[in-house]
Amino acid sequence: xxxxxxxxxxxxxxxxxxxxxxxxxxxxxxxxxxxxxxxxxxxxxxxxxxxxxxxxxxxxxxxxxxxxxxxxxxxxxxxxxxxxxxxxxxxxxxxxxxxxxxxxxxxxxxxxxxxxxxxxxxxxxxxxxxxxxxxxxxxxxxxxxxxxxxxxxxxxxxxxxxxxxxxxxxxxxxxxxxxxxxxx
Length: 184
What we know:
Elements: H1 2-17, H2 27-32, H3 40-53, H4 60-72, H5 76-82, H6 91-105, H7 123-183
Helix pairs in contact: 3-4, 3-5, 3-7, 6-7
């Protein structure tokens, strides 16, 4: 309950920062698109967008997050923070899991070729490396895309559950209290 109140109290404070003359032109667009709204639905959409695009390993993620948050009325702060799950410590596991998922979609032999005995930097070395990356690339790209969508759906649902948990708990207590007063 306190977290929800704190998040909702952030919105006017952040929008107040856009009262400065050089940022005032952005305020109507940000307010209208809910990109800085800390209510349940924009937070859930923002977290889902951030988790889905957190797999993208480039700076294009930032542009895509901003565009999708504007399009789907998601919170850009939540999207940015949620995208940080894929970092230098976790990327190996994320891409390995993506490769395993993609390998199920594209069955067959996807092995990196043996480079022993081949001179580093030769044309044969480059052709074998490119062939190996091609073998591993498509299953990894497809698998990480599917993994991103699955994680986004789970994150969207998790935000709603976390947000509504105090209300469900309060409803259970109220029902228990009513049952006790009726039996008395």
